[in-house]
Amino acid sequence: MRKYRERPLEPVDEDLAVTTGPRGPDAIDRLIVAHGAGVVCEILAPMLTADRMARIDEVLAARLASVIPVVEDVYDPHNGAAVIRSAEALGLQELHVLETGLRFQAASGITRGCHRWMDLHRWRDPVACAAALRTRGFTVLATTPRGAISIDEVDVTRPVAVVMGNEHAGLPEATIAACDGAVVLPMFGFTESYNLSVSAALVTSHLAARRRAHLGARGDLDPDRLAHLRARWYALKIRGAVGVIERAVSRRTHRDVAPGPHSP
Ligand SMILES: C[S@@+](CC[C@H](N)C(=O)[O-])C[C@H]1O[C@@H](n2cnc3c(N)ncnc32)[C@H](O)[C@@H]1O
Description:
CATH superfamily of the domain at 14-19 and 65-215: SPOUT methyltransferase, trefoil knot domain
Shape: elongated
Strand content: 5-15%
Radius of gyration: 21 Å
Bound molecules: S-adenosylmethionine
């Protein structure tokens, strides 16, 4: 395990641990799976304004699931936060973090809560992460100043995940070897590499634009995932949504099983 200096004390987003991903669904996800996205939206919609629901649908329509940034061993919580913030602003749905040496942290002053709209997946093993993405149809590409493939040559006819290394050493050889190739962002100055969060934004904005052009659409969520996210985002907009859903479902269940006035 690589060792780094103590990181600066910084308020970080503590709820990063409970975003959806291999760690399992949170309470909101469990309720959506148990009762259906439609039922959850039906319960919560009266508590949201029409503008807010329209905004959620607008963002959902532009959500791109087929470009995924992956970052390994991010040292600086400001960079962690900047990666999330750019990815969310670009309309990407997933961020995968490899924690081979360092736990991923994001400065809350920079994310301003935007991580809540994304799915964060945490991994300890680069090989397992790449294999899981490949199984889902993704090409997995390392990014390094010494990459052999120019960013313009990346095949965007398939979903693509791009792996970024940390601020100091960049990507370990083992991670690069676990990928399907290594991509370089052209550099023209004396500087030898871009900053991590800048690289992540440059690479993903470039690939997302080309992928959207290839798809001929802003977003690519399948209908089930879109419906699930709509219900989740409704819930995230309402304080105490879990309790609201639980009480409404319980009232509906009692209403359905209670004997009516004409029951024998
Ligand atoms: C500050 S750089 C790390 C520099 C490190 N000394 C190295 O040589 O990889 C952080 C990360 O940004 C990405 N990066 C920076 N410049 C890049 C470039 N020109 N092409 C592709 N990726 C780059 C890589 O993922 C890199 O691991």
